[in-house]
C-alpha cells in the first residue's frame, strides 16, 4: 500500500467509522489511520477505501502502532474500526499464494502468518482497553482480529463468517481459535467453523462475539457510551483488571497450540498447491 503521486482523498463511505470529538492530533499512516483524541486512540483500517483485507502491510502497521503504545501510558483506550464498506474481508489469500509461489519452502508464508500471531498477542496484551467497532462484513481473519479486543460493538446489519474450512484451510489465522472458543464457547464455534455459515449481529451477540449491537447510525454512540465511563476509571485498576482477566482466559486455554498455526497454514497451502 505504498502511495505514489498525490495523496488520495479517503473514500466517502456510507458506513463511516467512529468519529472522534474535534480536538485531536492526527498522524499520517501507511495502511491504517490513527487519530488521537486525548486518552483515546482511534485506529481505522482501510483509510483510502482500497482494500478490506488484512495483508502484510496492514499487519506491520498495526504491530508497529501497538509496539509504540508501550511508550504511551497516557493512551488508555484504543478503538479499532474501518473506513471501508466492510470491517474486514479477512486475510489476503492472493498474498499467501504469491508468497508460496515465490518461496515454495513456505518460509515467507510463515513470516506473514507469524505477523498475524504477533499482532493478536499485542492487541490482547496492550495496557489500553480495546474496543472493536464492526460494520458490514466481518470475515475470517477480520473476526479473529476483532475477537482479541476487550469490547466489541456491531451494527445490527453486520454479517459474520468463518470461511476457512470451506476454502480448504485450517482456521489458523493469528492463533485465534483459543480466543474464539474462550469468548463464545466451544460448541458454537465448532458449528460455525465447520459449517462456514453466515451469521448475523443478533447471533454474534447471543454467543458472546458482540457485547452490543446498534443501528448503524447509532453505532458511534454505542462506542462512546463505553468510552465516557472508561476514561474516568483508575488507569492502574483498568490495567490490573485486564491482566487478571487475561490470566484466567489463558488458564482456560492450557492446550493452546496457536504457536503452530503459521506452520499449519503454510503446510495446508503447500499441499493445495501441489494438487
Provide structural commentary:
This protein has 275 residues and is an alpha/beta fold. It has one domain (25-218, 238-274): 2-enoyl-CoA Hydratase, Chain A, domain 1. It contains 10 helices and 12 strands. The protein has a 7-stranded mixed beta sheet with strand order 1-2-3-5-7-9-12, with helices on both faces. Strands 8-10-11 form a 3-stranded mixed beta sheet. A two-stranded parallel ribbon has the order 4-6. It is globular. The two termini are 31 Å apart. The model is unreliable at 1-16 and 18-29 (pLDDT under 50).
- Could you give me the name of the CATH homologous superfamily? 2-enoyl-CoA Hydratase, Chain A, domain 1
CATH fold description: 2-enoyl-CoA Hydratase, Chain A, domain 1
Q: For the record, what CATH class applies?
A: Alpha Beta
**Beta-strand content:** 15-25%
Average pLDDT score: 85
Contiguous helical run count: 10
CA-to-CA gap between the ends?
31 Å
Number of domains: 1
CATH architecture classification: Alpha-Beta Complex
Strand order of the largest sheet: 1-2-3-5-7-9-12
Strand segment tally: 12
Give the class from helix and strand content and strand pairing: alpha/beta
The percent range for helix content is 40-55%
What is the general shape?
globular
Largest sheet: 7 strands, mixed
Give the oligomer, counting copies of the same chain as homo and different chains as hetero: single chain
Spatial extent as radius of gyration: 18 Å
Order of helices and strands: EEEEHEEHHEEHEEHHEHEHHH
List unreliable stretches of 5+ residues.
Answer: 1-16, 18-29
